[in-house]
Amino acid sequence: MYSLSNFFKHLPYRFSRCFTHPAPYTLLSNVNFTHPKPRYHSTPTSLLSPSIHSSNSPYLSVRILCQRHALDMFSEALLCFGAYSASVDEEDGCEGSYEIYIDSIFPEHEDVNACISQAADSIGLKEIPTYEVKMGEHCDWIKETQESFHSVEVTEGLWIVPEWQTPPDVKATNIILNPGLAFGTGEHPTTKLCLMLLQDLIKGGELFLDYGTGSGILAIAAIKFGAALSVGIDIDPQAIISARHNAVLNSIGQEVLKLHLFTEQTCLSSIKEREDGVVEDQSSHEINKYDVVIANILLNPLLDLADHIVSYAKPGATVGVSGILSEQIPYIIDRYSQFLEDISVLEMDDWACVRGSKKINLIDS
Ligand SMILES: C[S@@+](CC[C@H](N)C(=O)[O-])C[C@H]1O[C@@H](n2cnc3c(N)ncnc32)[C@H](O)[C@@H]1O
């Protein structure tokens, strides 16, 4: 039986993606951030801290030279240790180089040196990255950061459109998103792969579980494709808030798109609505219920939570797991082949999504 203590031990895995250790079942990173609570899973192009309250305050603009292999983890660590945002300009003169620039925004009063040192230390960098600091002018830099997101056509006729843009094709299936607050902008290959899988699977009337919903992009897409019910779960309250906002942007009601926060309290208390509007509830994501289950998280939680993730699917239902690099496919197949049959793999830009059908006679643990 899956236990809560097991579940919570996976939280640090959210920081593991930039390490591609070959051995399965290994804790790839022992990073344990204590303050403030980490919010983001990865940084495809840009991250914004949810602690932003005012977009018009003075700020420090910090350009940091980072080792390319540490990019994802270091960006996330910066947010954890005080940065408002961390973004990468892939076209900024470092192509092919061992190092890459991260442009980060800090509050005016922040001790940037301490933040960068702590961030580097927390992910085990031996040297503190070099950086330069400029005082930012009063300007709406959140808006500037958001403007780096553009409408994306994921597959023919399926567009992800930022909230502030007009859909390029009004006849297409348009998912309207505010991508600034949680992972799932539609730009990341794993999100694209999951969307393609969903488009293939949802024919009408299905029950869909989005395990690690982030911005809610997959849960929303499933409804747009014709699912009868989407349930999105996440361990990050900001993701739930963001997904709810995005559901409203797409005129999708709570009767068909249910969002649930996984917390320790969730399992100890009954359903309750908190002051921030997040509903905590475990009752509606029942095992053996869903026609399609997709988990776009990371290698290690996918390995450790495999039986838990699969248990939500009906016998014979499709389970898709993503958030993994192509080189990690064998570990996923090795682990999931005890639960799934007819396993196949979709790949895009070195990222992968593994799908399979839940074995009919599987006894859920
Ligand atoms: C890569 S994002 C995926 C977002 C979206 N589903 C997509 O496909 O773009 C992963 C999300 O999973 C959440 N997450 C990470 N570990 C989790 C876990 N063990 N259980 C539930 N959610 C988790 C993160 O908070 C994050 O919002």
Automatic annotation (TrEMBL):
Highest taxon of source: Eukaryota
Assigned keywords, A-Z: Cytoplasm, Methyltransferase, S-adenosyl-L-methionine, Transferase
SUPFAM superfamilies: S-adenosyl-L-methionine-dependent methyltransferases (SSF53335)
Xref: Pfam families: PrmA
InterPro entries in alphabetical order: Ribosomal_L11_MeTrfase_PrmA (IPR050078), Ribosomal_PrmA_MeTrfase (IPR004498), SAM-dependent_MTases_sf (IPR029063)
Protein family: Belongs to the methyltransferase superfamily. ETFBKMT family.
Identification of the protein by name: ETFB lysine methyltransferase
UniProt source species: Xanthoceras sorbifolium
